[in-house]
Design goal:
The complex is a heterodimer of chains A (about 110) and B (about 120). With about 110 residues, chain A is mainly beta. In chain A, about 0% of the residues lie in helices and about 50% in strands. The model of chain B has no long low-confidence stretch (mean pLDDT about 90).
């Protein structure tokens, strides 16, 4: 079946540091890939997405590239801010209307 | 963009009572809605998938008689936790899909505390 594996947290960084959160997936075919962010006490917000191999999703300084050859979708940001402190979820979608498959989430804490 | 409104955001209820959580898609028609449960510091656990006008499909291990899901219209789905007990205390999140590959829009979640 489909699965998503992402690095465990918590990840603690200083402001302006470089952030990478690894995400790999297992699925047949060509799923769509997503990164969601969850701030404390809130639901999930879509951060970025990629729907085919070699696509790069980007938003708010975050980027992730859909790598079919390594089945990965690592999230990166060059210079984090305190406001980036949140839990980040990698997810895949096999087909429209199907359920999302989530990774376990990675908690990121950015200290001033 | 697509917005999903979930209410209430927090609710405290007494053991044995029932609680209803609403999830509304405000600016699009949601053909499919999903209900998740999230335990502290854990990922989301899918409880059920509901399609408008049909019975919900529950994930294995989720009690359908305890967690009643209704998706009566293309903009509204409800989750009713019946005869709630303290172990039902959790964060419940809904999400909605218009049926495309664009991804799903999530509600802001409901913190349920059963005392």
């Amino acid at each position: 079946g489909n699965s998503v594996t992402q690095m465990e947290g918590p990840v603690t960084l200083s402001e302006e540091a470089f952030l990478t959160i690894n995400c790999t997936y297992t699925a047949t075919g060509y799923p769509s890939l997503f990164w969601y962010v969850q701030y404390p006490g809130e639901g999930l917000q879509l951060l970025l997405k990629a729907t085919k191999a070699d696509d790069k999703g980007s938003n708010k300084g975050f980027e992730a590239t859909y790598r079919k050859e390594t089945t990965s979708f690592h999230l990166e940001k060059g210079s984090v801010q305190v406001s980036d402190s949140a839990v980040y979820f990698c997810a895949l979608l096999k087909a429209a209307g199907n359920k999302l498959t989530f990774g376990g989430g990675t908690r990121v804490l950015v200290k001033p | 963009g697509a917005v999903v409104s979930q209410h209430p955001s927090r609710v405290i209820c007494k053991s044995g009572t029932s609680v209803k959580i609403e999830c509304r898609s405000l600016d699009f028609q949601a053909t499919t809605m999903f209900w998740y449960r999230q335990f502290p510091k854990q990922s989301l656990m899918l409880m059920a998938t509901s399609n408008e006008g049909s019975k919900a499909t529950y994930e294995q291990g989720v009690e359908k008689d305890k967690f009643l899901i209704n998706h009566a219209s293309l903009t509204l789905s409800t989750l009713t936790v019946t005869s709630a007990h303290p172990e039902d205390s959790s964060f419940y999140i809904c999400s909605a899909s218009a049926g495309s590959f664009a991804g799903y829009t999530f509600g802001s979640g409901t913190r349920l505390t059963v005392v």
